[in-house]
Amino acid sequence: MPMTRWQELAGGDRGRQYAERIAALAATGAAVHGEAAFCAALAPAGARVLDAGCGTGRVAVRLAELGYDVTGVDADASMLAEARRSAPELAWIEADLADLDLPAAGAAAPFDLVLTAGNVIPLLAAGTEARAVRRLAAHLAPTGLLVSGFGLAPAELPLDEAPIDLATYDAHCAAAGLVLEQRCATWDGDPYADGPYAVSVHRWRSAAPPAAPR
């Protein structure tokens, strides 16, 4: 599989450094659970959540603490090692989102909510964005939601330019059978007004999701 933009930037062993940075930030009293709070407002406790691009598990672990049935997926083995260390009881799966094909039983699909936070979409492997969105949609329940937050400008990304804009992302979602339900400027739910970061919530266009291509 092609390397994701994240893997190209981070190298092979950034999991521990990333986890330590988040822990240090939390120790200052900074709010580090905005994504989990946003998702908790959309789905009741007990709902099945797929944290796609889960990294070290920060959001997934918090959602599990809030009573959600969470599965984490990431292509970075070093990040997943930290996730497994912090919460060995949760399901952590190493996979590229563009090739995601979880079993339709057990701790896998369908999910009530699929989350991509932390600039997952722009840090996918170049050219795989549309396929990744299709694969994420394929894991949604008929009433499920796809929630994605990512930067739209270099100031919000570890990149020199933003590889995807909202019109393109919405087009990928539409091709997968999804429509925009809500768009915010932050994980706190502030209204979106053409800023450099957006949180988008998409749902199925109809109650019965189309058959997703493999």
Automatic annotation (TrEMBL):
It holds the Pfam family Methyltransf_25. Keywords: Methyltransferase, S-adenosyl-L-methionine, Transferase. GO terms for molecular function: methyltransferase activity. One of its GO terms (biological process) is methylation. It comes from the Bacteria. The keyword Transferase applies. Residues 49-144 form the Methyltransferase domain. This is SAM-dependent methyltransferase. It comes from Pilimelia terevasa.
